[in-house]
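Batch manifest line 209
LIGAND: LGQLAAA5
JOB: complex structure
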Amino acid sequence: MSPFVKICGLSTPETIDAAIDLGATHIGLVHYAPSPRHVDLKTAAALRQRAAGRAKVALLLVNASQKETSDALAAIRPDIIQFHGTETPEWLATVKRLVPAEIWKAVGLKDAGTLDRIEQYRGIADRILFDAPAQALPGGTGTRFDWSLLKNHRHSMDWGVAGGLTPDNVAQAIAETGAPLVDVSSGVESAPGVKDVDKIAAFLKAAGL
Ligand SMILES: O=C(O)c1ccccc1N[C@@H]1O[C@H](COP(=O)(O)O)[C@@H](O)[C@H]1O
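JOB STATUS: finished
ARTIFACT:
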């Protein structure tokens, strides 16, 4: 069975349409000022509307304050909130009580100890997204983690793989990890923040969509 595929960091109507028309099941909007993929709330709300009913929309936040989070959720009303910083289980549980969105937690997968530590999110996060450990930015850097860490791991929550995926390696990532969801951002760009429709098409094809 083909995995779900999320194309993250989309910032234009044209690339939203292309990703969805080519088969992406999820799209991601980044609301994090240091990112080259940052979209302001007005833009994000318009893009969210454009994707509504066609693909699941994830809003990516990184250690956003209470006010930033509530402003963003009120403006965008995403299907999913992807927390990509060092947000605590308590904060995620608070947000979960307040909004009907799915809660995803991204974690940098460094070693087997990470797989123990994520248990703190069980019952709170609806999905764990394994990514490379944070670099200068906490994500979107095109860095892979050691996929073999997931070999034989018994997952206690829904999960997915992100980090350094490209049209050339996504099939191998799926085969090695058995990921039910893959997530890509920089691997389908021609420059930081500039999505490339041909690369999106190649990624979706290589992922089996
Ligand atoms: O995309 C970003 O700019 C970003 C910024 C801050 C945190 C996460 C970000 N993106 C997410 O990072 C992973 C991996 O991205 P990549 O494929 O290696 O470029 C993915 O989940 C993005 O959604």
